[in-house]
């Protein structure tokens, strides 16, 4: 290893890392992961080693395993699901004369990798001198196609830098790749060893295919590769296929000044039902398409797809180049996670790593889908289609729990509950309201009546039925929801969680409204006037506890009576607290892992007065430790709303840089999609003040002192428009489509092609709130603005 | 099998079962178990088969095993403990000519087994005709010695009934006996297979010894046997020893009219530290003692020990012979569980079976120790010495949980927490107050200052420290204890559980009082005036929530606001509810598994007015399903106090007959010691109205209509006295020792050798309370009073 660790370089449209840094590989593999939402490949070096954690994932393809309980209980899920590292097709090994190209040996005089946000490719340039002094230049480029969802393509070029040289390339399909076990951190998912059973293999010419099936879940997958070779004369090739390995070997003598270029096309497919021949045909067809389009064609399609995305969704941040890069990195990865999922989940880590076992959680609907709804609405729709496709499982689960309607799982790949700790899983019923909210938002933003008819109304109705059966009217006529867990994971199983109750309130109203729009669907679902009336009544009478003595909303009933956590006695290395304190201690005290009441003030802001928001925010700021990556983005939004703009800026920085700075020290297992989405929320809902309560789009923009200008784009019912914010004014202009009705700091406004510029009123938020000792967000001081060095751990 | 199932026969001083009933074997093995608190052997047939579940247990001897968690957490116990079925010495097999004596074949014309409560023996008489028509009479008798705690003795006699006959006896020591796995019922403990590793074996003459060590916990045990043989001439014997089997074989031709008699002496010992030679010497010495005493001597000692026990502790019930038998059965087994434990725990099942993994729980201190305290106080003292010996582990656990003082485990064999589900385990902190309460009661009843100095004060101080750190003063100056679990297992992790808070209140006061009595001990423990002052203040200001609207105490804060369980929609076969409904559903609704607030009214009755007791009792009666065997005895006590005497009688019947009627269908895994104790409480605290608040002994006797007379005995500070109750009057008389001060229905009274007879005032309790549909206790109708047939399942 010849170069020092340098970290990511700052640039507006790319992410570049110079040097190798073996101990940083696993982390950078996550950031350099490519995906289209259907196939994901981590940014592992082509030669396979050194490596952090190799990973190739197919959305929805998982293995089952037993969930053990020392003390079981009724309704505990018995089977867990874990995303499988499927057949690895990105491996291309190089032999330079008789020396394997391995960067742990010899000297790399040049080594850099670049993720290009506009081209959608990962490129690499390495100049390497072998231990015996032979020098080669290696250039690679890879993409996971947004336009041909089964296809991955890689180009590998190698040239001798001094003498003529014999070069051998081995291009593999490798199944059941051995991978290392990770820590005992409960947040890091369990890995599975050799989950694939070989069913079929074949190799001929430059092409090979392997078909495998998981041992327990019985899912079948096929991976195929084909190649194009450009080489000097004298090429020798051979291809072989075993159960778990197919390999094309290419050998040639390359004169100085010439090069060997291998273009590798990969196709992946999987199915729960299709036969071996059918799957084989499917990947063969995908390969044929890719070959027909060709390498240059795939590159061009990729570029065009991304141009379109940025035209709708780009966010410009002037005054903080690192933040600018981080926000685009975030948007790029959100697009990668959702673009071509097509009725599969968007996992918490996307397809960038095995973290959280590859499960999807509520944060997809709460944080990721709003971003997609306003930028790539088809992707949001497809993710909601996945939820709709799992309704039978959610209804079964509700039945098992003694409830009506649909209880969506806390964590899952195929829609069945996989949470083995019910107080923080099954009891967190808000997931069903979060799904309903994402559905209602998608319907309001797109006006997509076809989706509403096919899926939207049913999701809203079945979740409303859940709430109607979960809550009850008390002797004072209030609708209570007892014994549930809200978003904050340092509390559990409490009565009348404000977030949950307000989200249930919206869920019940939206279901009734959708049934009015879709009377035939409602009738087919058996919804009567009386049932819808009960929903409205429950919504109207929802109980929202309030602590008169302290003048704040308790997160859940009784919360503000609990003992305050002793932050002064909590050493810095005791965070995250869940690794050093028992749940019993966390649950019974006033300590908040992540925004809960504060999230309620974002999602259901129309249920709070500005004064309540200010008091609540200050109260929970003093008790929130942000041991979850889900929190900073939301705190940025509410900090901005109540006028603490520099604090909001700090939180936005933390959310946007969570993965690039590895704030939670677990990026090695994948990126945090919700935190990446939090960067968008911090800009758009925070400094843009965007809210969409009841389908009305409003803005209340304000900039922090460090930023000169923000511009972001959104689409609403097919219209694209841009919002440009300066310190004293904001402009709204239509980019395409019909005019859009919005409000600016409460003033109604029509957005047309002629920009409307409106002044920003001043705000006096009073003194800034305090955070628990040592848990304030890192300040984005001016000195930080122009460097990409990792920030200190919080 | 030749005889029908008949069940137990009713008799005042014994438990007799005629006939075999293979499918009832496991259940009767529990009832026929013999134990002295140190060694326990289940009532398995000598010939080993047919059998239910063989079991030989040494108190405190366990194997460790991993506790698996699909999702782990900080502070979760990693190692579980399970009682080990140790080397089985009760096996004596018989060969009649060439036919093995096996009651599944041939015909048993006579077969009965009798547990004798006064002799402390289990006897058997079987007359059996082999498949080929050979007839023998087998008589056996066995005892686990109360006076020589390491010793078990068996006598086996066989005589031919027709012709002369060759008889062969094989007397075994068998280790790692294979046993069947049981159901998945979470209440039934996991069994371990072949936990013993052989270390030493030797056989010579009629004597053999086996030494084994557990594989993981590293505990070592020795079992030795010696024999005396009385036989006709021509005896041939042989003895062998392998790793897991030692066997004495005895063969002889026995003429008609003669018999073969084998007397087998067994000695058991175990240690965590002692060497093989040391343990071998220990059991050899015990055997030598037993042989020196001899069979007749052991029988005589056993009888004398029991005479003394019954003289102090007998309970007479006139008018219900079945109940009379059940109460003596209960007392006999409680004595067996505790008599010679000597600084070991009293497990939830005693040493009668492997249920609950052999763990001890809070119910030992709450239900079992009061019985022993008033009848065999040394046994109560020894059980508390066990808790004291585990203080270091309890202090470590408190530290791990972020608390001071001692947090005793929810379930354990060696004192380390083994509960793998913290909401119903670790969070049930009341166990520490229960231990403190048992300590305080023992001190008040015995005045044992030596124990107080050595152990009592320390237990009280360290548990008081726990409460001082677990609770906090709120803004109104109330001392709150949040986020804990009370006795009711259908609720968990709630604020200000009334039972817990009131028990903590007593714990804090008793600690302060003990420190005043033992200033040197307090000083050595670092207790300052200020600390004791804080305890008193916390006790004085303990928060006891009350629901003004409903006029009742909520079990925990908010409980009475929760939705009522829908009992009408709950089918009879859905009980126990925990096997058919998720915890989430149980916890959030008003459904009570077992007395909680009602237990508080028994244990801390001086904190409630009579009117509160009546209202609370009615309220919780309507919501209590008694899915726990711990409940009926307590409900009997409070039903009697509030004047519902016939209902109390029903509950007393259920508590007393829980095991004999197998009400919870799990007697096969051992008897329910706490429920057996509940029978005593139902009589003494229920119909006797005995309370001992603040060390003052009071009685408020009243009989139900079906009973003509109750007499029970107690000892207080060395004085024995009897309480005799008739419908209209009660008499108190001293049996030995100094006079005793008590009160009768509020009237002070001195108990002397001249009986004092006082009238019983009438009570009008109003209409009887209702229970959930189908969950009323079985009525003890007159028709039931003279039959021993099993009652219908509730």
UniProtKB/TrEMBL annotation, chains A, B:
At the top level of its lineage, which domain of life is listed?
Answer: Bacteria
Query: Domain Glycoside hydrolase family 65 N-terminal: where?
Result: 18-272
Q: Bias category Low complexity: which stretches?
A: 785-794
Q: Mind telling me which InterPro entries this protein's record contains?
A: 6-hairpin_glycosidase_sf, 6hp_glycosidase-like_sf, Gal_mutarotase_sf_dom, GH65_N, Glyco_hydro_65_C, Glyco_hydro_65_M, Glyco_hydro_65_N, Malt_Pase/Glycosyl_Hdrlase
Q: Which residues form the Glycoside hydrolase family 65 C-terminal domain?
A: 690-751
Compositionally biased region (Pro residues): 760-771
Q: Which residue ranges are recorded for the region named Disordered? A: 760-794
Glycoside hydrolase family 65 central catalytic domain location is 328-680
Arranged from A to Z, the UniProt key words for this protein are:
Glycosidase, Hydrolase
Alphabetized GO MF terms: hydrolase activity
**Pfam families per the record?**
Glyco_hydro_65C, Glyco_hydro_65m, Glyco_hydro_65N
Q: Which family does it belong to?
A: Belongs to the glycosyl hydrolase 65 family.
Listed PANTHER family:
GLYCOSYL HYDROLASE-RELATED, GLYCOSYL TRANSFERASE
The protein's name: Family 65 glycosyl hydrolase
Task: Name the source organism.
Answer: Amycolatopsis cynarae
